[in-house]
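Have a close read of this protein, sequence plus structure tokens, and explain what the tokens say about the fold. Thanks in advance:
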Amino acid sequence: MGQAIYFIFFITLLTLSCGKTSFAQFGTGSPVDVTSIENGPAPIRDLSGVWTRLRPEGKFYSNSTWTPDPPMVTSWGQERFSESRDSNAGSYSLSETNDPVLTRCYPPGVPRVYFHPYPFEVIYTEKQMIILYEYDHTIRRVYTDGRMHPEDSVPLWQGHSIGEWKNESTFVITTVSIDERTWLDRSGYQHSDQLRVTEVFRRIDNLHLEIDIIMEDEIALTEPWIAETLYYRLAPPHWELSEISCSGDYLDFSQFESFLENPSN
């Protein structure tokens, strides 16, 4: 009973937080200028700005998985999937799930981070492109200085990412060494240490961005899992990211102390 109450309280606060976030366009900042943005040609080799996900009519959209049909998995992948008890796709209640993001506050990892309904921001430095995801203060470094993936890199929640421009409007990121504790999606498909994720960012015009994602893992998948295209719109320049954290921002953990100390309550 105590555990069920814990999860109900968790999701209630999360829902309230989502509602507040939709109106907190300026995050924790105070913009000096509130300006609009007009459409036009795509800028050359530039993805900078804050991007929010769209739901185009007639296009596949899901908050839990990448494609209408499930991926083609190996026996290893099927075994791991059968162990997953997802909540986001509706198969299990919050008191039954073993989703590591919900039960352990693990980072969602790549590419699952795109399922969280919060914007992300792209910032450039001399040697890397920084992607700031509003969810859980996630910082991702995409190296653009010509380096290769290390042969024996340490597994990371966001993996090791390198990127390059293929033309004036298409940027491709490849990511490896992604921590195996992350799920590929919210429905519970898992991966091995051989996972390789390719993201293709296409700047359509000044306001619109499309992202294609390809997941390859010879241990978990019998063939690449190619996600349906994700669609994004550039937010006005005064839009600032807020803070959505799994620990502390929308959860008052002091409320859970009695449960953690006495789980049978």
